[in-house]
């Protein structure tokens, strides 16, 4: 089948689909599937926009909301992973994946699906060593710290993916696997991006987590984005069995969606003509999800995955024929991904901008349905319970001593913190013209502080759902209202809530000025950790 | 091997599976579409380095003319390996080689700038302003070419001898939950 792959999308869905149409006419014919490698920006409204870790100047609504509302429809099945510039609150609703709009499927924190027999896996986010061994503890409204850590890859997701045994056809990661640049035209890469040289030579560019997965999964194709350059590599794995030929991975990284940039690639991928032409769950992956359900961790404390070191009663969570059969029976032998998209929040209306739209930690009915089918835990439900009953949250304070030199009260309405610190360490190096833009944008950081407004009513939500036909209209009982969830604003200041290291909750007192790296320590909380030495060691990795 | 006949005898766009989205509307139905536009130098089609991707002679897919024929790659999971191991071979450029990064001589790749830390978002006032948002400025012929055409496989064994720091774990072990 013909597959198009896109690099960083940055909300430019219209442009991508238009270019795809153009490409189809230029030769290859219709494309069956579009894969997007992150920075998708599934922004539905103004509240989502505030959850993206970008300076305010770059918080553009773009075009996704038109697909969410039903005004437009994706002309081809689109599957994507998350990157480091996302409407994180939206993607957080779907930790196991789901539809963000009709025909647009998010793979989740990690996920595997099948389309026409082609097995497609992916992992969302980017690697940062200091967050890698934490649980999924973040929830909206995010602080200046959690708005970034939310998209950092966690060891549990890598661990789950490493339980896979069956062959993988396509895998997606936003950041590149570390070392992959040694398998392609490195000289040309460094000519184009000369400032990668040192990291390439030191072999520190890219994600070691993705590299582990690449080594384990050995997919036929691996697609990435993030570094905004097209780069192809051809990796010959070592043969596992002398009687079988060694596997090879064709790696391709793509640029971001802009004119004259290599943000799109159309390739032909072998598929099974007998397989259905709709999206299917992967039975091995579902079985692993079920097996590892008890490993869910919603705390900030560091942990390691079970391994065969004498400390764990179980370390192998791979699927067996028997367990897969059990899961299949649970699903009545129907692996079809249900088309159960529903609109859950009010959609952006250009004629009625709502800059003060309230941000809500939403339980998505798709996730509820998925978890109910398989007996899984919705991470967001666990997080909400933990926030309501702080003792369930594993006393993060006991893990790390946090000494705050700032006794100011947390901001009541401070949800818009992504631009408060100087340079987002997760952003990558670009051209000097971009830096000019960045400098211009920093000082306006606090211009759009979030204040609550009227939450969309059930009626509103139903109206949105009814606007297009193939969308599931939620019964009123499934629509999450503010009352059922509790106010995120109130929760922000909940006494006893574990304080996050590096939290930005007290940032209302921060002067409205650019915080350079040099000044940052003076303005932020002074944090003393028991394991400071470890942090100091691993923070070197953040340079990439 | 069924590779050359991959496209099932179905309508050109994936049909709507039972209860599916229908895979959306056809691209052909997009408003404003008016059929193929003649090639222009701006698209890079005038370049000798590019094969016109349309027409029976140069259809980018399915001719199984791979520069790596005879390579040792395993094929896909749904049939025997295709020649050269690449299931979707592309037409070779008449120039003998495809440009690695897909830039035609007539196209400048701006925005690949200096090592400054910045946002990955596009600039509205870069050195070379984006003058047009028309879709043709977004399309590049290299988007249809085999990106791996000029590459030789590199063995993991060779690279891992040179570099070892690919592991995620760099510090002390934390607590165990199980």
Characterise the protein shown here.
- The complex is a heterodimer of chains A (544) and B (178).
- With 544 residues, chain A is an alpha/beta fold.
- Chain A contains 21 helices and 14 strands.
- Chain A has helices at 13-25, 46-49, 64-69, 88-92, 129-132, 146-149, 155-161, 186-192, 197-201, 208-217, 283-291, 321-330, 365-374, 379-388, 396-399, 432-442, 458-465, 482-485, 488-492, 520-523, 532-538, and strands at residues 2-6, 33-36, 77-80, 98-101, 104-106, 110-115, 118-123, 170-173, 221-224, 231-236, 248-253, 264-268, 279-281, 429-430.
- In chain A, the strands form 2 sheets. Chain A has a 7-stranded mixed β-sheet with strand order 10-11-9-8-7-6-13. In chain A, strands 4-5-3-2-1-12 form a 6-stranded mixed β-sheet.
- In chain A, a hairpin with a 2-residue loop joins β6 and β7.
- The longest helix of chain A has 13 residues, at 13-25.
- The radius of gyration of chain A is 22 Å and the shape is globular.
- The two termini of chain A are 35 Å apart.
- The relative contact order of chain A is 0.15.
- Chain B is mostly loops and 178 residues long.
- In chain B, 4% of the residues lie in helices and 2% in strands.
- Chain B contains 1 helix and 2 strands.
- Chain B has one helix at residues 156-162, and strands at residues 116-117, 154-155.
- The longest helix of chain B has 7 residues, at 156-162.
- Chain B is extended, with a radius of gyration of 22 Å.
- The N and C termini of chain B lie far apart (48 Å).
Task: Please sum up the structure shown.
The complex is a heterodimer of chains A (544) and B (178). Chain A is α/β, with parallel strands linked by helices and 544 residues long.
């Amino acid at each position: 089948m013909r597959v198009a792959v896109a690099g960083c999308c940055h909300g430019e869905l219209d442009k991508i689909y238009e270019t795809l149409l153009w490409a189809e006419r230029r030769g290859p014919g219709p494309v069956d599937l579009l894969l997007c490698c992150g920075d998708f920006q599934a922004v539905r409204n103004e509240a989502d926009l505030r959850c993206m870790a970008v300076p305010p100047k770059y918080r553009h609504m773009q075009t996704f909301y038109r697909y969410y509302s039903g005004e437009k429809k994706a002309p081809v099945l689109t599957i994507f992973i998350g990157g480091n510039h996302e409407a994180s609150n939206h993607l957080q609703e779907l930790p196991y994946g789901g539809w963000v709009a009709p025909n647009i499927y998010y793979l989740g924190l990690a996920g595997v699906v099948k389309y026409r027999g082609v097995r497609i896996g992916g992992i969302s986010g980017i690697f940062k060593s200091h967050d890698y061994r934490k649980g999924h503890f973040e929830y909206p409204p995010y602080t200046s710290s959690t708005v970034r850590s939310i998209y950092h890859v966690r060891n549990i997701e890598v661990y789950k993916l490493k339980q896979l045994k069956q062959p993988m056809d396509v895998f997606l990661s936003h950041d590149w696997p570390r070392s992959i640049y040694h398998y392609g035209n490195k000289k040309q890469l460094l000519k184009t991006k000369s400032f990668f040289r040192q990291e390439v030579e030191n072999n520190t560019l890219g994600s070691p987590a993705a590299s582990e997965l690449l080594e384990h999964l050995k997919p036929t194709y691996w697609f990435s984005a993030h570094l905004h350059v097209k780069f192809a590599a051809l990796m010959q794995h070592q043969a596992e069995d002398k009687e079988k030929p060694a596997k090879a991975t064709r790696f391709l990284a793509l640029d971001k969606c802009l004119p004259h940039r290599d943000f799109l690639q159309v390739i032909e991928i072998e598929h099974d003509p007998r397989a259905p032409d709709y999206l299917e769950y992967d039975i091995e992956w579902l079985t692993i999800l079920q097996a590892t359900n008890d490993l869910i961790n919603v705390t900030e404390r560091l942990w390691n995955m079970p391994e065969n070191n004498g400390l764990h009663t179980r370390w192998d969570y791979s699927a067996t024929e028997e367990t897969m059969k059990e899961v299949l029976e649970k699903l009545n032998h129907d692996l079809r991904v249900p088309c159960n998209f529903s609109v859950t929040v009010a959609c952006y209306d250009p004629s009625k901008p709502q800059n003060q739209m309230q941000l809500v930690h939403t339980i998505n009915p798709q996730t509820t349905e998925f978890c109910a089918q398989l007996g899984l835990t919705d991470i967001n439900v666990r997080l909400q319970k933990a926030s309501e009953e702080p003792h369930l949250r594993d006393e993060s304070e006991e893990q790390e001593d946090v000494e705050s030199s700032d006794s100011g009260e947390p901001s009541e309405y401070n949800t818009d913190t992504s631009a408060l610190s100087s340079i987002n360490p997760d952003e990558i190096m670009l051209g000097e013209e971009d830096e000019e833009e960045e400098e211009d944008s920093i000082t306006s950081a606090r211009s759009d502080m979030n204040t609550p407004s009227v939450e969309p009513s059930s009626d509103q939500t139903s109206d949105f759902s009814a606007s297009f036909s193939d969308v599931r209209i939620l019964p009123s009982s499934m629509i999450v209202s503010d009352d059922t969830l509790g106010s995120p604003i109130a929760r922000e200041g909940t006494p006893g809530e574990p304080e996050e290291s590096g939290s930005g909750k007290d940032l209302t007192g921060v002067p409205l000025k650019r915080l350079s790296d040099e000044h940052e320590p003076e303005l932020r909380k002074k944090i003393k950790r028991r394991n400071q030495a470890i942090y100091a060691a691993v923070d070197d990795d953040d340079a990439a | 091997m069924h590779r050359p006949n991959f496209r099932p005898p179905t309508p050109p766009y994936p049909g709507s599976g039972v209860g599916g989205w229908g895979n959306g509307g056809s691209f052909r139905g997009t408003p404003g579409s008016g059929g193929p536009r003649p090639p222009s130098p701006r698209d890079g089609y005038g370049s000798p380095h590019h094969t016109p991707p349309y027409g029976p002679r140069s259809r980018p897919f399915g001719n199984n003319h791979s520069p790596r024929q005879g390579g040792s790659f395993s094929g896909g999971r749904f049939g025997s390996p295709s020649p050269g191991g690449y299931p979707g071979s592309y037409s070779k450029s008449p120039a003998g080689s495809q440009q690695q990064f897909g830039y035609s001589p007539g196209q400048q790749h701006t925005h690949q700038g200096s090592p400054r830390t910045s946002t990955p978002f596009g600039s509205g006032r870069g050195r070379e302003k984006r003058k047009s948002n028309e879709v043709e400025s977004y399309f590049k012929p290299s988007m249809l070419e085999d990106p791996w055409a000029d590459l030789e496989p590199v063995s993991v064994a060779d690279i891992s001898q040179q570099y070892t720091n690919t592991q995620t774990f760099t510090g002390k072990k934390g607590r165990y939950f199980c």
